[in-house]
Amino acid sequence: MRTKITLACTECKRRNYDTTKEKKLHPERMEIMKYCRFCKKHTLHKETK
Fold first, then answer.
1. What is the pTM of this model?
2. Overall fold of domain 2-48
3. CA distances from 27 to 7, 30, 47, 49 (A)
């Protein structure tokens, strides 16, 4: 079952993206490089609670 997660920018701490992931295949927290429209550059985004 896919669960909804929120990704937050590590620099400005804003929650920019909502997505889903498969908990059984990837139980660890997701980290991905995404574009932050507030920082105006690509930054590391981490999964939040």
1. 0.85
2. Rubrerythrin, domain 2 (2.20.28)
3. 15, 9, 11, 13
